[in-house]
Write a structure and sequence with these properties.
With 152 residues, the chain is of the alpha+beta class. The protein is 34% helix and 27% strand.
């Protein structure tokens, strides 16, 4: 007798294999997505620092420019000190699965770039990390002359 088709056991095995492969793909996609978000946040902070430095060097508004850091956001501001109610402040909120920490010596957790020279008021490292896994992080290093670099 010649049988055609698949048995129920063969179909169940194929469905189980597809299920396992799908689960692996979802886990890898989730990890890749978090890594990309981390990279985007770090690059955004570095860009905001570079913009503040460029604005200070160009003498925009005739003042220094800076960036203040909080755990869930960072704020670009004009002037040598941060004022919470200033209309020129720009707030950048990060994804809630990540946090910002820093080694800034300034008690207000801010970096200020001096007008015309672009030198930073403090050397510092700003770290963006996943809340669920602190080993997944990016460091943004600010040097004394205003150099800015992103380190994995």
């Amino acid at each position: 007798m010649n049988k055609k088709g698949f048995s129920l056991l063969e179909i169940i095995i194929v469905i189980a294999i597809i299920g396992v492969l799908s689960a692996i793909a979802v886990i890898n996609f989730s990890a890749a997505k978090k890594a990309k978000i981390l990279e985007t946040i770090a690059d955004g902070i570095a860009f905001t620092l570079e913009k503040a430095k460029a604005d200070a060097v160009s003498g925009k508004y005739g003042q220094s420019h800076g960036v203040k850091f909080n755990t869930g956001d960072y704020i670009s501001f004009v002037g040598g000190s941060y004022s919470a109610g200033n209309a020129s402040n720009t707030v950048y909120t990060i994804d809630t699965a990540f946090t910002i920490t820093n080694t800034i010596a300034d008690p207000d957790d801010k970096i200020v770039f001096l007008r015309l020279t672009g030198a930073a008021n403090s050397t510092a490292t700003v770290t963006v990390s996943q809340i669920s896994d602190s080993t997944k992080k990016r460091d943004i290093v600010i040097g004394p002359l205003g150099s800015i670099s992103v380190v994995q």
